[in-house]
Amino acid sequence: MKYKVDVCIVGAGPGGALLGYLLAKKNVSVMLLEQHQAIGKAFRGEHLNEEGEAILKKYGLFEDVEQAGLLRMEKLEYWHAGKPFKTILPDSKVGHLGIHVPQVHLLTVLLQAAQKYPSFTSMMNTKVVELIKEESGSYCGVKALTDKQEILIECGIIIGADGRYSTVRKKAEIDVTIRKHGFDLLWARIPAPDDWEPSIRMALIGDKQLSLFTQAMGFIQIGWNIEEGSFPKLRKQPFTPFIEQLIEAFPQLEKSVRQHIQSWRDFVLLDVYSSTSESWGRDGVALIGDAVHTMTPTGAFGLNSSLKDADCLAALIDKDYIKQLDLMDCATKRKKEIEKLQAIQVEKEQTFASQFVVFA
Questions:
Q1: Which residues, other chains included, contact 213 with Cβ-Cβ below 8 Å and sequence gap of 6+?
Q2: What are all long-range contacts of 125-134, with beta carbons under 8 Å and residues at least 24 apart?
Q3: Residues near 126 by Cβ (< 8 Å), separated by ≥ 6?
Q4: Dihedral, CA atoms, 204, 198, 106, 278, nearest 10 degrees?
Q5: Is the CB of residue 34 less than 8 Å from the CB of residue 129?
Q6: What's the mean per-residue pLDDT of the chain?
Q7: Within 10 Å of residue 287's Cβ, how many Cβ atoms?
Q8: What is the structure's pLDDT at 24?
Q9: Each residue of 262-293: pLDDT tens digit?
Q10: pLDDT score for 323
Q11: pLDDT at res. 44
Q12: What confidence tens digit (pLDDT) does each residue in 178-227 have?
């Protein structure tokens, strides 16, 4: 089966979904491909900052996301020995220290908005297996498998919005530079106690960061830094002493932790690294989001950066004007911002322990 569109977007995460909506709104024909059967994968970046919030408000989407369900963080606390010792409140002009938006809520709003336009088509459970080239060497489409059926999609440009392990980036042979940060991350999610306030809470366990992020729908997401590559060895050790450290840091969570974190299997491991690509595209291919600049979880910049990439790129594409040279203007602008954000992430990671120096 063959299709022909102006733009083929690979990856229906927030960046790809927003870009699909913005282009369809401009009457650019779009095919959005997603390899998973369902949207909203667990343990992904789900915190909007004021920049991400501004983009959604710019296009009249924020109210729909708010109606679907979100939660504003009211404070950031640093804890030691089971008690908070430092509290940071939001700027009154901003009103929050981040907004938790379940990814399924955000993606549902973006895709429903896009589907109102006849120029937008999406296909789930569809995996790209090959990029198609013209005789000139430029990429002009993709070959994909959907329900074991092969399809061909001809297009003016391919957008890789398919995450840190981007198939589009690999198939287009775009180089990537990976930076390890010396730690990996264990994620877990537990129900929040009834009196838990919407907040971000931080503690220091040994020399490693432990973070709690209140989530919409009554949950807490736990992010626990561990030594890079240490999880295989760690999970061979007794589980109880490890989890007792979490309870000691946040005694209020003891009941929920004991009920919902009972073995190493209740954690999800994230291999932490950041990456950059010197080229954000080539010969009919452009990359956005984690496909071109993987961010660490520090500071929750990833989601917001992908939304900004999509906003920037959409402004440069219309139905009759798709040129790779012009697309690189977006990369030039965004590269500088990403470099700054990744530098901020490194600084935050290296100086986190200094918040607790009074207890050293």
A1: 47, 73, 100, 200, 220, 221, 223
A2: 125/34, 125/35, 125/36, 125/37, 126/33, 126/34, 126/35, 126/151, 127/35, 127/167, 128/10, 128/33, 128/35, 128/162, 128/167, 128/168, 128/171, 130/171, 131/158, 131/168, 131/171, 131/172, 131/285, 134/284
A3: 33, 34, 35, 144, 145, 146, 151
A4: -30
A5: no
A6: 94
A7: 30
A8: 97
A9: 999 999 999 999 999 999 988 899 999 999 99
A10: 55
A11: 66
A12: 999 999 999 999 999 999 999 999 999 999 999 999 999 999 999 999 99
The one-letter amino acid at 120: F
Enumerate the H helices of the chain as residue ranges: 14-25, 50-58, 62-68, 103-114, 167-171, 231-234, 240-249, 254-260, 302-314, 324-351
* Full-model pTM: 0.95
Count Cβ atoms within 10 A of the Cβ of residue 187 and give its class: 0-12 exposed, 13-18 middle, 19 or more buried: middle
Decide: 267 and 149 in contact? Cβ < 8 Å.
no
Q: Is residue 91 classed exposed, middle or buried when 0-12, 13-18 and 19+ CB atoms within 10 A define those classes?
A: exposed
3-state secondary structure of 47: strand
Contact status, residue 43 vs residue 319, Cβ threshold 8 Å:
no
Provide the CATH topology of domain 53-101+182-271: D-Amino Acid Oxidase; Chain A, domain 2 (3.30.9)
CATH of domain 2-46+103-179+274-351: 3.50.50.60
Is a pLDDT exceeding 80 seen at residue 319? no
Cβ proximity of 319 and 28 under 8 Å: yes
pLDDT of 43: 54
**Annotated domain spans of the chain:** 2-46+103-179+274-351, 53-101+182-271
Question: In this model, does residue 130 exceed pLDDT 90?
Answer: yes
| pLDDT band with cut points at 50, 70 and 90 for residue 41 | low
